[in-house]
Amino acid sequence: MSAVLDRAADFESRLRAQGSAYHIYHPFNRMLNEGRASPEQIRGWVANRYCYQIAIPIKDAAILSNCPDREARREWIQRILDHDGHGEDPGGIEAWTRLGLAVGLSRAEVEDQRHVLPSVRFAVDAYVNFARRAPWQEAMCSSLTELFAPKIHQERLSTWPQHYPWIEPIGLQYFRNRLTQARRDVEQGLRVTLDYFQGPAAEQRALDILKFKLDILWVMNDAMAQAYGVA
Ligand SMILES: O=C(O)c1cc(C(=O)O)c2c(n1)C(=O)C(=O)c1cc(C(=O)O)[nH]c1-2
Q: Which CATH number does the domain housing residue 93 bear?
């Protein structure tokens, strides 16, 4: 392998190693995926995560607004279409709302965000504000927690139907859609990151950005654990 490929492979493996701090290991998430959550805890999680879901296309639009590279924009814009929907596709936000209905929330209580905890909102705002202010390559890099997302979505698809038979299966469609969407997103995010962050200081910067994003997801779970308890 050439030195250039070696460097990229080594950098990518250090990015992937950060997955040990992913919220898949948070006690609140483990409770959800290991079948110990009550209907109230699941409803609390879905209602709070709605705040993250609606922020994602705003965050991606902020990245586009800072990005002078037309080719990069042509690819990145797909993320906004995925979440907002287009044509016949109602999109990810609507799929999340339907998850809310399937777990027993009303559309109104999902959409008016009455259950969203202050620290969840602050964490989500920190992500959107980072994307508004950072160079577009750094903001794209911060999406790389998605490297670890297919596994958490798959875990929900594999375990929730047995643990929570009261949830209508159609409600889990959001997770199914994300399996392919997240893999495609990651390809672009990684390409930009491996290309832009070169040299030890820049690589460390990318690792720090990824840690910042991992922390956002982690503290959202901390807030929900504090509000709804952990079994
Ligand atoms: O359910 C999850 O655990 C989870 C995590 C993440 C993530 O790692 O940021 C995303 C998603 N889901 C997700 O559904 C999603 O669309 C998404 C977009 C992004 C991003 O940073 O641009 N992260 C995530």
A: 1.20.910.10
